[in-house]
Amino acid sequence: PVPTISWRRADGKQIPRKARRHRSSGLLEIPNFQQEDAGLYECVAENVRGKNVARGQLTFYAQPSWTQRISDVRAAMEERVSWECRASGRPKPSYRWLKDGEPLLPQGRVQLEQGSLTIPNVSLSDAGMYQCVAENRHGVIFASAELSVIAIGPDFSKTLLKKLTLVKVGGEVIIECKPKASPRPTYSWKKGKDILRENER
């Protein structure tokens, strides 16, 4: 006689509630298929003379989609710049980087690792448009950001040179001078109008 048909998952999980069964045609329909719906499914046909099972593996694939993008950065010369981009997808996406449309390779100061790009000490030549590319066999996506490198003359507005009063003759005095500047400045010290030079004291 005509068999009855039922469906089940071989891994013991429940068939999604959203699934629709059409018993007469032996059809199982799963709308809005998601990763949790993937797995090994079994179609069971049975009548009074016996039973037979057909198995099929449903695999979830998805093109990359951004979970973390990169954004524009303004950096002073010799500052550290880091970007990180992340994408979901199935299979897991791979990453590569472009600068001004050209492939960027790990070299010297530029460090690349998966979706991360780091420049420990930026220079004017690092300025430009950067792109993080995430891809798998189902698609490619791009995220873009601009790196602007700026130069700053020495600025003492946020530097405090303290007046120090010695309580004990022969004690040690440390005066810090840390102006904001890019690139890193050179330093010289004066006492009054006289240039101080390093000596035994």
From TrEMBL:
Gene Ontology CC terms, in alphabetical order = membrane
Q: Which SMART domains match?
A: IG (SM00409), IGc2 (SM00408)
Q: Which domain of life is it from?
A: Eukaryota
Record bears the keyword Glycoprotein: yes
Q: Name one Pfam family in it.
A: I-set
Cite the InterPro entries for this sequence.
Answer: Ig-like_dom, Ig-like_dom_sf, Ig-like_fold, Ig_I-set, Ig_sub, Ig_sub2
Q: Where is the Ig-like domain?
A: 1-54, 64-148
Q: Name one GO biological process term.
A: cell-cell adhesion
Cellular compartments annotated: Cell membrane
Q: Which Gene3D superfamilies match?
A: Immunoglobulins
Give yes or no: UniProt keyword RNA-binding: no
Main localization category:
membrane
Q: Which UniProt keywords apply?
A: Cell adhesion, Cell membrane, Disulfide bond, Glycoprotein, Immunoglobulin domain, Lipoprotein, Membrane, Repeat, Signal
Matching PROSITE patterns: IG_LIKE (PS50835)
Q: Which family does it belong to?
A: Belongs to the immunoglobulin superfamily. Contactin family.
| Quaternary data | Interacts with PTPRG.
Q: What is this protein called?
A: CNTN4 protein
What is the native source organism of this protein?
Answer: Toxostoma redivivum (California thrasher)
Gene name as annotated = Cntn4_2
